[in-house]
Amino acid sequence: MALATLALSSKYASSFAGDVRRLEGQSCMLEAPRVVTIRQGARNINRSVQIMNVASVPSTESGSNTKSYVRVGVLGASGYTGSEIVRLLALHPIFQVTLMTADRKAGQSLSSVFPHLLAQELPDLIAINDADFSKVDGVFCCLPHGTTQEIIAALPTNLKVVDLSADFRLRDVNEYEEWYHGPHRAPHLQKEAVYGLTELRRDKIQSARLVANPGCYPTSVQLPLVPLLENQLIEKDGIIIDAKSGVSGAGRSAKEANLYTEIAEGLHSYGVTNHRHVPEIEQGLTEAAGSKVTVSFTPHLIPMSRGMQSTIYVQMKSGITVDDLHWHLSDRYKNEEFVRILPKGAVPHTHHVRGSNYCFVSVFKDRIPGRAIILSVIDNLVKGASGQALQNFNLMVGVKEDCGLLQQPLFP
Ligand SMILES: NC(=O)C1=CN([C@@H]2O[C@H](COP(=O)(O)OP(=O)(O)OC[C@H]3O[C@@H](n4cnc5c(N)ncnc54)[C@H](OP(=O)(O)O)[C@@H]3O)[C@@H](O)[C@H]2O)C=CC1
Ligand SMILES: CC(=O)N[C@@H](CCC(=O)OP(=O)(O)O)C(=O)O
To answer: Which domains does the chain have, with CATH numbers?
Structure first.
């Protein structure tokens, strides 16, 4: 069969090496896209469905039968976001996990830490100091913020890196030091890092070596608000964000505040007026508006494992209606797989995106004239972390962006 286009752009394909038997016979190439009509609410959308074909991924050893694939390291694989990347990569036709690190869990197998990942053939968890980075082509860095800067700074510079921590998200190092209460240990990389809000920064991400994956709350907030501010449809003043997260957002390490007894059957706010995602949200909104935006942001912890909703209150510009907001968002995201603007009146539920890379957004007219209410839901561990990280890594390597990410949400 004649195959049309390489899924790995040739620029990168030659630098990835590996003998991967599991990929032989599969495919990673693009056939001619098929156009299918998908019914979404009252609309019909035409989407091109592209079929990957791994069999013809170019070999680095010309003339041999060896197939190339991308060797991936997951730093912090024993945590929630690291293990979620491993889960997503199980069905990825091009990336293979060849290195996994842990701290307390080093020396164990991942399946002993996370039995739900038992079905995969994976290397054991090792300490970062024992890792041989010459054996990987890229890494997902899923470590606590603060610990990440020095580790990334010490990595070989030929590696592509997606950092899930907050260490490289703020462009202004002084702002980082103020909000994260400590010196930045790799300010030179802060300049290089590209902020990885995929749908809004695709061009820069494609050519990046280091991507700072956005925080979960900032992802849910910026996806709807950035296009509205860029198009001057809403006022930049008076934005109120009331957000709620499942407990996995706090990571797996034991904390008294996250005990079942503290979380179950209750709800509480935290980080009131001073949550560290405020500067990240304001950085993105300020860039979109063209002048300083400040927001009121209050996160809450609710008794569920995963999922997040941001309820956002905005003042529309004079003469702008909720229909205008809905039309502009629908138009902005009409060709995006993972951001769905719901039909008018539909209320998103965290269950609708659970386990998936989707962000569902809806827009309502407030009872107060001139104001609108925007609801945005994501899975904090997928679009809010590991799914978006994989989306970015696909782009950085030249693989089709949605590769490994088209699982449908797990409902209920
Ligand atoms: N959870 C979420 O929803 C989101 C998290 N993030 C960010 O992603 C990063 C990872 O988060 P998450 O997976 O939730 O965190 P977890 O606490 O679940 O996992 C942290 C991982 O880092 C390892 N680790 C901890 N300390 C060190 C250290 N000093 N040196 C090397 N390895 C270390 C842990 O190893 P071990 O377990 O063996 O000790 C574990 O593998 C964080 O920066 C977080 O803020 C971003 C978006 C959303
Ligand atoms: C529920 C909970 O605790 N959530 C985390 C945010 C998770 C996240 O996105 O954290 P990073 O910015 O470190 O990546 C928090 O509020 O700190």
So the answer is: 1-68 (no CATH), 217-380 (3.30.360.10)
